[in-house]
Each structure stands twice: as structure tokens, then as C-alpha cells.
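Hi support team,

I've been running sequence recovery on a batch of backbones for a student project. Most finish fine, but this one hangs at about 90% for roughly twenty minutes before it completes. I'm not sure whether the input is malformed or the queue is just slow. I've pasted the C-alpha cells below so you can try to reproduce it. Let me know if you need the job ID as well.

Thanks,
M.K.
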């Protein structure tokens, strides 16, 4: 688009900007009488161009139009994937679990576990012989139940990757292995190209790959968010392990 000589508008020196999310933009500026600048605005709106209008001096206004490329004849990047900006997060929160999910409970003899379950659900009383006879960790669980404790908290971690791509990105966001799990943190790091430069430690354990979210912004750029949920173990009956070469 050229406005030179149209309605008395005069082109000013061109500026270019680079943003890691959007790539190159070109800012083309024109100055002219107020009426001339205002007269060209409907045309810019109809073309869907981004622009700003501003005062220059008495009776003279300026209009700056932003184009989403360098407009200098340069070739596109040799690797369009370079136009993707990626951020990583390790999101932590506390998860409530049932008291009987604790490893110290599951390690108890079956007879102790049955006594504790019966005591919690009211089938046995505090003065029943087998309840009073509990010792060690079984006694400690009995005391917790007596105090009304029903659960405990554990740390839960979510690894989150967010990718933002420029308009000319030629790739696609993948959904491979969604709903499956990595058996080790090392497998996750290798398969999902987790950077070694992250400023946080990855907890050891297994990682379930969750369903991603992919959306398009109003400016046309695409944003993809992928999460992996950590656990000591994921059920190999409910989920498949991801084989990493």
C-alpha cells in the first residue's frame, strides 16, 4: 500500500521493529493535513491494518501503519520453527489424600489394616481388644483416627510448556502420546526436549501427558499449552507407558 502523493500525505522514514513473539514489523509513517489523514482512516480500517494517528503540529497530523513483516525483500527464515517462543513452568500445589493411601499404612500387616478400617467406620470401638493392642505405626494411625484425621497432604507438580508461534510458522502442535505416561523423569526430558537450562529441579517419578490446549489469538498467532502431571507411580492398568528409544 502506498499513500505517497494521495490526499497530500507525505511518507516519512520507515522504521522496523523485532519482537521475539511476532518477528519483524515495519512501521510506515505519513504526515499531512488533518482532513487528509482522517480521510484515509476508513480505508485502513477496511483493510484490517494496525495503525495509530497522532498530532504533529498545528493543522498537521501523522498516521503510522504497522505491517507484520520486514518489507525489505529479505527471505523468510531458513527454519520456520525458529519463530516459536517457548516458556516452561513447574507448577506446585498440595494434594489431599486419604489417610489409608499413605505408604506407612499400606505397609502394615493385613490384620492391622482391617482393624483400623473397622475402627474408622465404627465397626469396632476404642476399647475393643484388638484396637487397644495395636502398636507401632498401627497405633499411630489409630490415634490419628481418634483425633478425627481423615487424610494428609502431598506435593503435586505439573510441568507446563507454552508455545507461541508467529503467523508464518509452518509447524503444527502435536498430540502424540496424550494420556500415556513416562516411567522416569529422564524419559520425559529426552522425549519432550525439556531444556537443560531450566532454573528448577525436576522431581523424580512418573509423568502423565495431559490433553493439550491449542487456541488462536485475536492477532492470528497460535498458542499451545501442554502439561505433564507428576506422581510417584501411574497405574499401568489405566495408562500406557511411553517407550522412549
Amino acid at each position: 500500500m502506498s499513500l505517497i502523493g494521495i490526499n497530500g500525505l507525505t511518507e516519512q522514514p520507515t522504521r522496523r521493529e523485532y519482537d521475539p513473539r511476532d518477528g519483524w514489523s515495519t512501521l510506515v509513517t505519513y504526515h499531512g493535513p488533518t482532513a487528509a489523514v482522517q480521510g484515509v482512516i476508513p480505508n485502513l480500517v477496511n483493510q484490517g491494518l494496525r495503525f495509530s494517528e497522532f498530532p504533529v503540529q498545528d493543522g498537521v497530523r501523522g498516521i503510522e501503519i504497522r505491517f507484520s513483516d520486514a518489507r525489505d525483500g529479505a527471505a523468510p527464515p531458513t527454519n520456520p520453527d525458529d519463530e516459536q517462543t517457548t516458556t516452561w513452568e513447574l507448577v506446585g500445589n498440595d494434594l489431599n489424600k486419604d489417610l489409608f493411601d499413605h505408604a506407612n499404612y499400606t505397609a502394615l500387616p493385613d490384620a492391622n489394616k482391617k482393624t483400623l478400617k473397622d475402627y474408622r467406620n465404627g465397626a469396632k470401638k476404642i476399647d475393643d481388644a484388638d484396637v487397644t493392642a495395636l502398636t507401632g505405626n498401627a497405633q499411630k494411625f489409630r490415634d490419628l483416627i481418634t483425633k478425627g484425621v481423615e487424610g494428609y497432604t502431598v506435593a503435586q507438580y505439573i510441568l507446563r510448556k507454552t508455545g507461541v508461534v508467529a503467523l508464518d510458522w509452518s509447524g503444527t502442535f502435536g498430540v502424540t502420546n496424550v494420556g500415556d505416561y513416562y516411567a522416569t523423569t529422564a524419559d520425559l526430558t529426552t522425549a519432550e526436549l525439556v531444556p537443560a537450562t531450566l532454573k528448577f529441579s525436576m522431581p523424580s517419578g512418573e509423568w502423565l501427558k495431559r490433553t493439550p490446549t491449542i487456541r488462536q489469538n485475536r492477532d492470528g498467532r497460535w498458542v499451545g499449552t501442554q502439561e505433564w502431571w507428576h506422581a510417584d507411580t501411574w497405574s499401568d492398568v489405566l495408562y500406557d507407558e511411553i517407550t522412549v528409544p
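--
Follow-up from support: It reproduced on our side and the slowdown came from queue contention, not your input. DSSP finds six helices and eleven strands in the chain. No action needed from you.
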